[in-house]
Amino acid sequence: MKKTREELKEKILWNLQMNTILERNAIDIEDLYFAVVEVLKENIFDLWVKSNVEKRGKREIAFLSFEYLPEEFLQRNVVYLDVIEDVRSIVEELGFSLEQLKKIDIVNKLGDGGLGDASFAFLDTAATKKDSVVAYGIRYEGGHLRQSIENFEQLEYSDDWLKNGNPWELERKRIYYDIPIGDYTVQAAAYDIPVLGFQNGYVNTLRLWQARSIEPVDYNAFSEGKFQESYKNRIRARAITEFLYPSDSSDQGKELRLTQEYFFAAASIKDILNRQRHHSHMDNIEEYCRIKLNEVHSIMAIPVFIYEYMKSEEKPFDAALAKANQIFDFTTYKVRNEISEWWDVHLIQKICPWIYPIIEKLNDEICALVETPLFNFTPEEFDRTKIIEEDKVKMIPLAIFGSGITSLAVKDQLEIMLGDNLDCIATLFHSRFRFRELGVNHRIWLMESNPLLFDFLTKELNIDLINQPDALTSILERSDSEEIAYRLDDIKKKNKEKFTKIFLKDRGDVINPYSIFDINNDDFLETKRQLIEALYIAYEFINMKEQPNLDFPDRTFFFAGKANRNYLMAKLVIKFINCLSYCVSKEVKIKDKLKIVFIDNRNMNNMMKLIPTADIGEQLTLPGKEVAMTNGLRFMLNGAVLIGAQTSINHRIRNIVGEENIKLFGANFEDVKNQSRYSYYNYYEFIKNHERMNHFITQLSNINNQELRECFRLILNLIGRYNDGFFIFRDLEEYIEAQRTLGELYYDSCIWRKMSLNNIGKSGVFNLDSSYDINEKHIWDSRR
Length: 784
Hints:
Structural class: alpha/beta
């Protein structure tokens, strides 16, 4: 039952008295923060217990993901408990503000980017739909590193975000598992975070594993002054869950990455089986449990499950594999069987030698199937079907064979697999593939991140957008209303003004709130092609220097993303952007019309503030190289116009919003596919015969800034070495023209407002609640 305001106030005051006033007569903001958190947790824990009672005997989804990216839990929980106004007024009575409390709430470092956002969005929707889910992850003590810009470069630092603990988690001291790893054993300790459904009293669990040494400090070594040796066991245990995606550029790094994946799989599978055993569901586990693997990092769970099921239930391999096929659902956004997802056999034999025989048996099963007269594969095709090839274990083929369903985001993924080194295994198990409907979480990306827009739409349309997000489309009936168009435009301006004030306070830098806000918030990878946008900015910058009176709408370009320290090109692109930003800022006649802002440490909090300000959203992923996730849908929902490459997802958006409300450019999937087959595009010939691009390269190569020149030279060398494999220069001219078209449209405020309104309305088609219903019903029905 929801607590009244007076009950909340009484409990908050009691917590303050017990924890602070006994020691001193005054309270500070941290005292109040922890008092509020404790009261909210008490309410949540009551609901948690009731929800767990309600779930008994019902089917359950076990969700495994390496990443989760929730918003701050204070904001989330006061909204989802429906106590935000009560808490706000109580806090104000005590001389503080809710905004002050939010600023000191812990920022969760459990993931980064699209995968983490998609994982937590699934949990949010499942809890709101009252579907029983236990999600599993890793309690990264160092997070995904804190990154900052120094001397134009993005550098990484350890982010000790858990140094004072996480007030929203519960350490489950009686839930732990011993996990043998090679010649030593670590303990997987469970920490649970409750995940509320929206104002429905239902709570699911996010269970995080932390690795601990079961061996004490070696006292003898310590006494002899061998301090590092004495802590050896603790150090190697802690390393397993220290960072998300530790570098795998060295042999030791590869071993740590695989150890992390195995540790995660072993702890999660042991817990899943223990939960099902507790409810006496082991004989018909497939009727009560489904295990969803979110991306390649969780695939090791399949052979671990088979091993543990055979061991605990004394079942043969065939029976355990049959169970795995019935309960595993593998979701991937990958399009190719990348070498980076192949593990050396000797590493697996070193880390988990008892699991390798299971992988061998899985490989034998596939080989036996392919050798039947039903198939007429060549020796090369036969090799491509194998899970083990040339002393490597290929994880995606293992997942496709070991799980009953492989869920893909778009049909292009399957087409690419059929034309790539996954062709044979994709053909063999074609019936196991499903295509997921994509959706954006309107509670997070509209209600919480853009309350001005949410409140206006709710009142104007007189509908319950929380429970009927598809009703957003009804605003299209009033697309000719100038009043609505002006109100939407005013909300966008207020969001920009709010963001620029925060930015000025935090970084001391001024942003023009009346400029076009053009936002790119993807991870930095070559496939994401932020370089195209950066080169376009450089192109316009050079033009504006030559023609100071050039008609160019004021623009602020935002980049927000991180690059792995081993991705040379990505790091160079980040440096290029920051060098260019510096050059622009030094031009007195240009700096007020053109600005580049790099958000150096992207997280969920700053993205929820930035995305509602977007006029233009960038989606530049090269078709056929990687599946873009839901970034474009978030931009749409907040009224931005998309500029994007010819990907399947952007085509789906175009089909919904209309060709006039999105700007696509460049090569399509067939162009990219034909390039890999026939190499019809030659970078050097293209530049040689293309006067505009040739001239631009010459100008940029001679620009009056040594850092920028040198950075561009290194980038050009890499592009030339790989024949412009990501179509940077091939697509640049089309991108320039697409941007200029958007600039012209922006000048006509009437047209731009209609485009924005149209995108908001059409985004109702892509709501996550509806896509969740379709996806999950389809998966469960296919199991019958």
